[in-house]
Design goal:
Helix content is about 45%, strand content about 5%. The protein is built from two helices and two strands, in the order E-E-H-H.
Length: about 80
């Protein structure tokens, strides 16, 4: 994916930095200076992906998405341990 790091849909780099700073403060999770650029890039990529999803038009008659149902530890079938 090729994103312009200075501009993603509806968010400027300064706005992304403000969001990251606010989340960091709210969670009490500091972002190390050496990781900050990478965190901002990841946030920009996530924002661009979200913007593409948000731009998809849905009609009232569109079918619902498939539902993911996770399996618990006892729900998965056991492997066949017989030798062939």
């Amino acid at each position: 994916m090729n994103l312009n790091p200075d501009r993603v849909p509806d968010l400027r780099r300064s706005e992304i930095a403000a969001c990251v700073d606010a989340a960091s403060a709210a969670l009490g999770l500091p972002v190390a200076a050496g990781h900050r650029d990478g965190v901002l890039d990841a946030f920009a990529e996530a924002a661009a992906c979200a913007a593409r999803l948000d731009a998809a038009a849905l009609r009232i008659d569109d079918p619902p998405a498939l539902v993911f149902t996770p399996l618990g530890p006892g729900d998965a079938p056991l492997p066949d341990r017989r030798r062939r």
